Amino acid sequence: MIHAPPHEGAAPAARILVAEDDDAMRAMLVYTLRRAGYTVVEVEDGFELGDYMAMMRGHGGTLAPPDLIVSDVRMPGRTGLEALGRLRAQGVTCPVLLLSAFADAETHAEALRLGARRLLDKPVDLDVLKAAVRDAVAPA
After folding, report:
1. Domain-located, residue 19
2. Is position 28 within any domain?
3. pLDDT tens-digit series, residues 23-42
4. Residues with Cβ < 8 Å from 115, sequence gap 6 or more?
5. Residue 86: domain span
6. Are strands 68-72 and 96-100 parallel, antiparallel or unpaired?
7. Which residue pairs from 123-129 have beta carbons closer than 8 angstroms and sit at least 24 positions apart in sequence?
8. pTM of the full structure
9. Which of 45, 53, 88, 96 is least surrounded by CB atoms within 10 angstroms?
């Protein structure tokens, strides 16, 4: 299930793709990011994340890709780390923030090796999340 509300407002907001299998956590992330002024698309797992990105590429560049991906690490089917690895192998370069309640030093190292911008530990502090998002989507 992919949810993308129509864009409202005059100024385009950064587009964020949120992949989280826990409904309550996904709702909280989406609500927080929308309240912060971002346009948010939500998917339920790593497979949908890959499907969404493939759909973006399949439209010949007519659909704008996300400016940032925020993904849980531990999801059924395809983990956030697996999804990140596949995206990087396909040439997707947008920043990725990963979230995990089970991250050890090895998981952090793997996330960085695969090109994640950051791995935030759950329960995520929403102010830390918003700061990480601002940093990731700030103009260079």
Report:
1. no
2. no
3. 999 999 999 999 999 999 99
4. 84, 88, 96
5. 36-137
6. parallel
7. 124/99, 126/32, 129/29, 129/32, 129/70, 129/97
8. 0.87
9. 88
